């Protein structure tokens, strides 16, 4: 089921602070789906972008483990820019929202927790097709 762009929210990740360093904990109460795939982006060249697609069903949770980057979310009409730069906060991205990642700082690492395994049929990689999809779904 596709969701509105406002359903994409920053979620505070519980952490234990200690003089030896912090420990962030992601358990089933933190994100509203069972994780089926984990991947991460790193060594992104300066000026490069990632993403540039939407998902029909997949939900994702993005965390800036190191450094920072911007996530641009679009629903076909509204656009939101969210900067991720704190490993104790993650961005929940719901299905039916276009996403682009850009402005990666040097050494940035983006961890992605996904609700399903890779499925090419779930991707919408053309923005005009995405807008048609949104109109067809009336969302």
Automatic annotation (TrEMBL):
**Where exactly are the transmembrane stretches of this chain?**
none
Can you name this protein?
FdtA/QdtA family cupin domain-containing protein
* Annotated source species: Flavivirga jejuensis
Query: Gene3D superfamilies in the record, alphabetically?
Result: Jelly Rolls (2.60.120.10)
**Upper taxonomic lineage:** Bacteria, Pseudomonadati, Bacteroidota, Flavobacteriia, Flavobacteriales
Q: Which InterPro entries match?
A: QdtA_cupin_dom, RmlC-like_jellyroll, RmlC_Cupin_sf
Which Pfam family, just one, is annotated for this protein?
A: FdtA
Which residue intervals define the domain Sugar 3,4-ketoisomerase QdtA cupin in the entry? 7-134
């Amino acid at each position: 089921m596709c969701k509105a762009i406002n359903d994409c929210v920053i979620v505070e990740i519980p952490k234990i602070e200690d003089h030896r360093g912090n420990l962030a904990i992601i358990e089933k109460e933190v994100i509203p789906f069972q994780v089926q795939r984990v991947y991460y982006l790193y060594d992104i060249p300066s000026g490069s972008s990632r993403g540039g697609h939407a998902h029909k069903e997949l939900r994702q949770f993005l965390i800036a483990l190191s450094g920072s980057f911007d996530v641009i979310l679009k629903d076909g009409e509204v656009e939101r820019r969210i900067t991720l730069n704190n490993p104790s906060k993650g961005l929940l991205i719901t299905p039916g929202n276009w996403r682009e990642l850009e402005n990666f700082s040097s050494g940035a690492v983006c961890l992605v927790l996904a609700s399903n395994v890779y499925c090419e049929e779930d991707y919408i990689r053309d923005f005009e097709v995405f807008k048609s999809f949104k109109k067809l779904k009336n969302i």
